Structure formats: C-alpha cells, structure tokens
Amino acid sequence: MLAMVASSDAPLLLLDGDLTIIAASHSFGRAFAVDVTTASGSPVFDLGAGEWRSPKLRSLLTATASGQAAIDAYEMDLARPDHGTRRLVIKAQKLHYADAAAPRILMTVSDVTDARIAERLKNDLLRDKAVLLQEVQHRVANSLQIIASVLMQSARGVLSEETRTHLTDAHNRVMSIATVQKQLAQAGQGDVALRPYFTQLCQSLGASMIRDHDKQSIEVSGDESRVGADVSISLGLIVTELVINALKHAFPGDRAGKIIVDYTSRGADWTLSVGDDGVGMPEAGGEATPGLGTTIVEALARQLKARVAVTGSKPGTSVSIAHVQSAAAGGNGVKPPEHAV
C-alpha cells in the first residue's frame, strides 16, 4: 500500500486516525513543495508554513476518520508564500481494514486553479459574444428598417406600375425578414415556439399589406410545437412567401376573405399549411408566370426534406409543406402553382 501511494501520479496522502501522515506520493511533494521523506509522521496540518490549517478541512477529515462522512469534492483555497493562491479539490475516504482500531484515510488532492481560470475565461468570452450578438442583431434590425423605408419611398415616387409593384414586394419581404429576425433575437439560443412566432409574423404582414382589416384577416392555429432556431427561420420564410402570395392573388378587387396558417407535428413528422378562401387557382391552360416566391418555397422545402402540395379548397387554395420521417428521400412532391407564390 505504501509503495502504491508513493508511486501514484496523483497527489495522495495516506493518513492515520489522528490525521497524521503515514505516506505521501512523490507527485504530492512536487505539486506542493513538500519533502515527502520528512513529511511522514507529521500532522497533515503542519505541512508547509501552516497553509493546510483549515478548520473546515480538519472537521471533514475527522468525520471521515470516524466513518461518519466521506469527502467527495471539498474545494479550498491554499495560499502558499511565493506561490500565490491555488484552488484545490480534496477527496478523502476511510479505508476498510481488519484492524478497525487503526483507521486509514486516503486523501486525494487536485489542483483545479488553471481549469477554473479557463472556465471563467470561457464564460467571459460567452458573455462578450452574447453582448456582441445582441449589438449585431440590433444593427441588422435597424438596417432592415432603413432599407424597407427606402423601398417604400421609392415605390411612392415611381410612375411605372410594374416598378411600383416590384418595389412594394421587396418592401414586404424585407419587413417580413425583419420580423423573423426580431422574433428569433427575442428567442435567443433556445427553441422557438412556432404558434406565437407565426402569429407575430402574420400580424406584421397584415399590418403592411391589408388595407381593410374588416374584409381580410390572417389567422394562426396549431399545437405547442417548438423547433430549433435554424428550422424556424426556414418555416418563417415559407409562411411569409405563401401569405404574401395569398394576399396578392386570392382576393382581387378588395374581395373579403381569410388566410389560415396552421402547424401541427407528431414526433418527427410535421405539416405546415397556408390556406385561403379566395378565388382559387386559375383554370387549366391559363397563363402562369414563375415567381421568385415559388423558387424560395421549393428551395426551403428541399432544405427541410419536406414535400409541397397544392390543392383547391373550393373556395380558395391550400398549400401544405409536410415532412414525413418514413418518406422517400427523392423528390418534393407537387410544386406550387407558378402564379401562386
């Protein structure tokens, strides 16, 4: 036993019931500048210049020697002259021998000073990163607002109806992205609750695009699903494109109607749908012009490994994006109608 203690790579002390040192490892001597050959026979509290004389440590070792306790991870500061203060983690347990009258305690000492400093530095860096991220998000939000304002002013000043339409579309997309960014910034690093997220997003879209809220409205329904921030970004952009599309095409001539955004999930399977009770899809053979939104929705659906399906609701149109865990990897199902996004 004494040879094992002496040769241990970990700083060890073998104590008797009176807390006197029976043996000390050479690693202990190197770590704490102790001559292990003269340390034997001395009380542990007389080591060095008395820096080990801790009432708390004495109480814990005494309780361990009596069998009333064991020291799992007691932390203490050891202040040695010319060595500064080191943070130690001490473990101690009573060894079981046939001679109960001669108790033995094995005490292990770990210097965690450098680890604690590294941990504090890491935490400081994480806090600095969080502050910097908040500042970046604030500046991004301000920049998006400025861009949206410039686009709207430009749209009001041009004579071409086609150019005005493109600028207005760009304004609406920038505003929706600003809403997505704001919501995710508030959510922080954790998962995002989708129903309130979609609700705020749709409120922003409705405020900028619906002229008469007595005639047209956007409703959000669904369960209590939560997803990671990266997935929520893709879902939010899909909702943005489909809601913008419905507001532009489903209710011509200030027609009254409602758009319903719904999200439900079961395990890894989920379905996002955006439906309206408007004029519906054009008749077969009608003109269809591919739009930027179509490409965006298809790309985001592929990214989420989901399928896109479009159906006539009679009245209206419903677009669903569904992810089924057991579905084949190839293909994304039916594409949205070319005019519709």
TrEMBL record:
Keyword Acyltransferase tagged: no
Residue stretches making up the Signal transduction histidine kinase HWE region domain: 135-224
Classification lineage: Bacteria, Pseudomonadati, Pseudomonadota, Alphaproteobacteria, Sphingomonadales
Annotated keywords: ATP-binding, Kinase, Nucleotide-binding, Phosphoprotein, Transferase
PANTHER family: ETHYLENE RESPONSE SENSOR PROTEIN, TWO-COMPONENT SYSTEM SENSOR PROTEIN
Enzyme Commission number(s) from the entry: 2.7.13.3
InterPro entries listed in its UniProt record: HATPase_C_sf, HATPase_dom, PAS-like_dom_sf, Sig_transdc_His_kin_sub2_dim/P, Sig_transdc_His_kinase_HWE
Domain Histidine kinase/HSP90-like ATPase, residue spans: 230-327
Protein species of origin: Sphingomonas populi
Presence of keyword Nucleus: no
Pfam families: HATPase_c, HisKA_2
Record-linked SMART domains: HATPase_c, HWE_HK
First and last residue of the signal peptide: none
Catalytic activity: ATP + protein L-histidine = ADP + protein N-phospho-L-histidine
Molecular function GO labels: ATP binding; protein histidine kinase activity
Source taxon at top rank: Bacteria
Protein name (database record): histidine kinase
Family matches, as Gene3D superfamilies: Histidine kinase-like ATPase, C-terminal domain, PAS domain
